[in-house]
Amino acid sequence: MGMRLLSIRFLTYGALAVRGKVWAALVLCLGLVVTQAASAQQTRELPLSIVAFGDSLTQGYGLMDDEGFVPQMRAWVEAQGATVRLVNAGVSGDTTAGGLSRVEWTLTPDIHGMILALGGNDVLRGLDPALTRANIEGILKAAQAADIPVLLVGMQAPGNYGPEYQAAFEAIWPELAEAYGALYFESFFKGLGEGDLSAARAYFQDDGIHPNAEGVALIVDAMGPAVMELIAAAETRRTEAD
Questions:
Q1: CA–CA gap between residue 87 and residue 110 (Å, rounded)
Q2: Is residue 118 a contact partner of residue 96, using CB atoms and an 8 Å limit?
Q3: Which residues does 86 contact at the CB level (< 8 Å), separation at least 6?
Q4: pLDDT in tens, 37-53
Q5: Are residues 1 and 89 in the same domain?
Q6: How far apart are CA 214 and CA 191, in angstroms?
């Protein structure tokens, strides 16, 4: 009789212990799900981070801190109701080769989109358009591997290099944008005089290469809608990743 009672108690205890472990596991799993959901919600509430990846035009050469491309673009998108962290990754004098060498450590996990505006120094040095193309393509591949949408900003070559050079150089951006599914904005200087050189000169610094604060404002007004498209694409990808 004593042995039977002991066996019953042992079995009852065993069943209760198993049930307790099951409930503990369920509670733990539920806690993990709730924690993950809360973490995803907190991530979505953080502002998007867009990196402006370029040269002195992006960096804000010759301008006060609040007059450059990045601060003016940040103010422009905020005026449209977007809350974005816009990172200035412009390096004065950088070529597309320099950009390719630093893109992987620039595209950290907290970056959600990229404005790619390189190539001006390549054309100033008369570099082979084939090399420029290969470098831009390498940067786009790095962004693709990181699942980061890109706004590719085109550059123009002056006619003094000859029509073949000019055509080969200017074809790089639209062709690569199409090949890699990037957003495309045809010219960093769009909006400055619309082909009227005498009008455009008023928006450049004395070197005739870098825009002044008023010129940057016009550039931002022209490019701003494309940047808003980039922000929307980045938000969509972040939501899908969650």
A1: 11
A2: yes
A3: 49, 50, 51, 52, 70, 73, 74, 77
A4: 434 444 456 899 999 99
A5: no
A6: 11
